[in-house]
């Protein structure tokens, strides 16, 4: 017989593909290594860079010089957002310029634009974050804006991540605090995932779940270091954000990193006239979802305060009624994503009670 019983059952399991970064550098002046990394990965001819007007000054210009002096043909595009128009623009430029690799340089949208367009055009991409505001810097997912609903779609993992603490430390602390909150959000995201596994028999990957949880616990433990100008704390955060990205790559979805607290943030994006930062909203959502999950929401709130992230509607600059509406509508954002909000359906009254009990409003 060709296969024994055990290998036969293994062959019957669904194929699970994991795409992981090959080079990750975190530290002071790592930007200098961009040329060397490109060369080592085999990109010796050409590169296309996506950046914003600000990130061009902060890091983009320097990367153009570095790669050009290494003999690469370097083109760059300035993108302002990551809507369908921007993506089509970058894809058209990839068709025209035929680069070997795309480098996304910036906070969220510039990296997302590079990630999704390179994925569609089947060429690799390198992530060069200039802030540490969310886990998209290392994840295979992209959040698309400008559609009727916020969509998170699978694109590809970065082949390399170049995180220069010397640059990121000079970004506003608000971004770093937001990144901390996006990591802390995994405390409820993983709970939701486990719940979906127990109730709906959804696939649950213990390894990916633990990786996301470990990152969140590490940020909680080192919160006192996550202060403006503290490089040690920033390194912890960057490694945690990158680990969360890897957790999503391993899980093959955003499940280990995005649960009911993210649904609340997505709902706020639709409801609030001026939404706050992604991580900031997720952090406030985590406080409330933790209470629904019966886990230590006070500790989550304390940690968010300690790192300088918002814990109230006022600090988010969002009206209390929008918080309540977002809580009520969060479960509709992604009906396929089973979370605590499907177990504990919130009405305007119970949502208001929850927001009040946790001090959010
Ligand atoms: Zn997030």
Explain how this protein is built.
- With 361 residues, the protein is α/β, with parallel strands linked by helices.
- The chain is built from 17 helices and eight strands.
- The chain has helices at 5-12, 34-40, 53-69, 84-97, 109-120, 165-168, 173-184, 186-200, 206-221, 231-251, 260-271, 278-292, 297-307, 313-316, 320-333, 340-343, 348-357; strands at 23-27, 46-51, 73-78, 101-106, 125-129, 141-144, 151-154, 160-164.
- The strands form two sheets. A six-stranded parallel beta sheet has the order 1-8-5-4-2-3, sandwiched between helices.
- The N and C termini lie far apart (67 Å).
- The model is unreliable at 1-12 (pLDDT under 50).
- The protein binds zinc ion.
- Zinc ion binds at residues 134-135, 182, 258, 262, 278, 282.
Strand segment tally: 8
Radius of gyration: 21 Å
Based on secondary structure, the structural category is: alpha/beta
In which order are the strands of the major sheet placed? Answer: 1-8-5-4-2-3
What kind of sheet is the major sheet? 6 strands, parallel
Mean pLDDT metric: 93
List cofactors, ions and other ligands.
Answer: zinc ion
Which overall shape is indicated by the principal axes computed on the Cα atoms?
globular
Contiguous runs where pLDDT drops below 50 for at least 5 residues = 1-12
The helix content is 40-55%
- The total of helices stands at 17
Distance between the termini: 67 Å
Strand content: 5-15%
Helices and strands, in order, run as HEHEHEHEHEEEEHHHHHHHHHHHH
